[in-house]
Every structure is written in C-alpha cells, then in structure tokens.
C-alpha cells in the first residue's frame, strides 16, 4: 500500500507540479531517491524504517517518471511511438531482471547485499546530470504555448487503460499460481511468467514502432483484441501450443501501452508530465485493486474461470479503442505543435 500510494497516486501530483514549474532537477532527484530507498531495505531495523525506505523509493519513482516521459515525448516528433516503446520496455526489462538480481544478491550476501546496486544507480544520476536532459527541452529559439487538453479523448484513453490494466495485472499476479495449481514446480511457474513478461517487452517495442507507421488507433485496437483472443487460446489448449499462445498474448497485450502513453501526451501537449503520470498511476493502481477481485473470484470459481472472466476486460478495452480518432491527432485537429520555431 505504501509503495502504491507513494508511487502511483503521487505521480500525477508530481507531473502537475513539473508541468507548471519545469524544475530541472526532478528527474535526477527521483532516480536517486528510488535507488537509495530500495538499496537500503536490508538495513531496516524496524517495520517503520522498512516502510520509510519503501516510501522513499516510491516517491522517487513518482518524481522520476513525469519529467522522463516529457523528455521522451519532446525529444522526438515522427518517432514518438518507437521512442516511448524503448523507454517503457527498458522499465519492464528492469522488472523482468529485478527478481533474479535481487535473489542472487540476497542468496550470496544477504538482504543487505542490495546496497551494492546503489553505486550503479547513482552513476546513472551523474550521467543524467552531465547530459543535462531537461535543459535541452527549452532552447532559446522556441516559444512555449499553452494548448487545452482534449478531455474527451483523454477520458477514452483512461478507460482503455483501466480495462486493459485489469487484465494485464491479473495475469502478472496470478499466472505463476495457475501453473503451480496445474502441478508445475514454483521454479517452472515463475520462469514461464518471466518469459511472458519478456515477450511483453518485445511487444512494447513493436507496438511503438508500428504505431509511427500505421497510426495509434489500429495498434491499440489490434493489440488488445488479439491479445485477449490469444490468451483465451492458451486457456483452451495444452502443451507446447498452449505456451506459444501464452507468449504471443504477452507481446500483443503489452504492445498497446507505449502507444496509449504517447497518444495521451499528444492529446495534452501542454501537460505531458501530469497526463503521463496520471496514466501510469492509473494503470498500476487500477490493476492492483483488480487483483483483489480476481483472487476473490478465483477462490469461488477457480483460476481458469477467473482468467476467462478477467481477460474479457481486454476485449472491452479493444472495443473502446474503436472510438479513438482514425487519423493522427495532428491531422485530425486534436493536436497542434506545442513548440513553434
């Protein structure tokens, strides 16, 4: 709860503050706080101190993402989808590798061994400071203009985010348990779940890349509808075919996320930090709450039935995506360039 409140809930707050102030140090400070909080968890001498470190890490994440999203969006124009895909897939690669790294360090050095990662994180902070990412967004030759957000479009994107998050976060949380219940070892179950996330990383890269070429709407619609169908195929089959369908569903379902973030930022060019933070916080927060409901349904009807029901939310998200504009936001009048020469 502490991690979710400090990271997910606070992200829109930091995003709104960043959009108003454009403070140049928020990105680096956020990364530093996150690294310090996570690296010192093993030194917690009490439960209160443990929560303090977790909260510090969460605040770091919340303050890092809005300026990071803004830097990615404003550093490119024709390849925003691809660039956002790279950025988000890098984050998911961290989630994919994190348990292995933490497990290895914990086994070899104990919980305090996590502190050996701190210098690496602080090194990246120094690199960011030297690169001076934030200042490059406000060149003297540009004039910043304020453009109102397209609230209708943002509402649709927020709804799509909520429904897709329910499906994805439920799968992330309960997929290992599903395989354990089928008689697989915990090692095999977690390995399969990791492969699903790994293919999801590739899906994010592909979704962002192709959205720059065929448009945002087709990728979001195809990603969610195809991902849901593939996951249903996994539930209905067995053996190697089932695993292939599962892996492909991960790539498909994750392909829409970077595209949604980019489309949200294009719908509110003057509030990129706040909107991006809101979408990410919404995605994590709604999904976390949905996991509770999934567990309750699984206790009553079983894991297979719960997966069948909750995968339907991705179908709903896919059909909602049909209401997105067919053309690019710029061409359809939803977007005007937020920086003019």
The CATH class of the largest domain is Mainly Alpha
- Structural classification: mainly alpha
The secondary-structure element order is HHHHHEHHHHHHE
Average residue-wise pLDDT: 83
- Do you know the CATH architecture of the largest domain? Up-down Bundle
Strand residues, percent = under 5%
Main beta sheet strand tally, sense and closure: 2 strands, antiparallel
CATH homolog superfamily of the largest domain: MFS general substrate transporter like domains
Q: How much helix is in the residues?
A: over 70%
Number of separate domains: 2
Description:
- The chain has 341 residues and is mostly helical.
- The chain has two domains: 2-136, no CATH class; 151-325, Up-down Bundle (Growth Hormone, Chain: A), CATH 1.20.1250.
- It is built from eleven helices and two strands, in the order H-H-H-H-H-E-H-H-H-H-H-H-E.
- The protein has helices spanning 2-21, 26-39, 47-74, 80-109, 118-131, 151-181, 186-214, 216-236, 239-267, 272-301, 303-320, and strands at 143-144, 339-340.
- The model is unreliable at 136-143 and 330-341 (pLDDT under 50).
Keywords:
single chain, 341 residues, mainly alpha, Growth Hormone, Chain: A, two-stranded antiparallel ribbon, 11 helices, 77% helix
Question: Nutshell version of this structure?
Answer:
This protein is mainly alpha-helical and 341 residues long. It contains eleven helices and two strands; from the N terminus they run H-H-H-H-H-E-H-H-H-H-H-H-E.
């Amino acid at each position: 709860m502490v991690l979710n409140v400090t990271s997910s809930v606070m992200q829109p707050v930091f995003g709104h503050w960043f959009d108003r102030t454009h403070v140049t140090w928020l990105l680096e400070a956020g990364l530093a706080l996150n690294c310090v909080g996570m690296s010192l968890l093993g030194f917690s001498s009490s439960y209160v101190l443990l929560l303090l470190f977790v909260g510090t890490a969460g605040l770091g994440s919340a303050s890092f993402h809005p300026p990071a999203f803004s830097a990615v969006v404003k550093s490119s124009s024709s390849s925003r989808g691809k660039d956002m895909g790279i950025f988000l897939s890098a984050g998911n690669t961290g989630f994919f590798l994190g348990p292995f790294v933490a497990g290895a360090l914990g086994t070899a050095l104990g919980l305090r061994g996590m502190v050996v990662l701190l210098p690496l994180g602080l090194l990246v902070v120094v690199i960011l400071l030297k690169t001076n990412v934030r200042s490059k967004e406000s060149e003297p030759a540009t004039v910043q203009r304020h453009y109102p957000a397209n609230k209708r479009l943002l509402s649709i994107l927020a709804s799509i985010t909520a429904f897709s998050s329910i499906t994805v976060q439920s799968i992330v949380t309960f997929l290992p348990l599903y395989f354990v219940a089928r008689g697989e070892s915990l090692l095999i179950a977690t390995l399969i779940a990791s492969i699903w996330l790994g293919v999801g990383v590739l899906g994010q890269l592909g979704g962002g890349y192709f959205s720059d070429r065929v448009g945002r709407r087709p990728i979001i619609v195809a990603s969610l509808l195809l991902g849901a169908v593939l996951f249903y195929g996994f539930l209905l089959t067995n053996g190697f075919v089932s695993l292939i369908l599962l892996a492909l569903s991960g790539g498909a379902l994750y392909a829409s996320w970077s595209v949604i973030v980019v489309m949200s930022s294009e719908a509110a060019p003057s509030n990129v930090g706040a909107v991006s933070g809101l979408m990410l916080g919404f995605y994590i927060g709604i999904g976390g709450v949905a996991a509770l409901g999934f567990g309750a349904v699984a206790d009553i009807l079983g894991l297979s039935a719960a997966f069948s029901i909750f995968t339907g939310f991705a179908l709903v998200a896919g059909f909602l995506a049909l209401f997105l504009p067919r053309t690019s936001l710029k061409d359809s009048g939803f977007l005007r360039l937020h920086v003019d020469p």
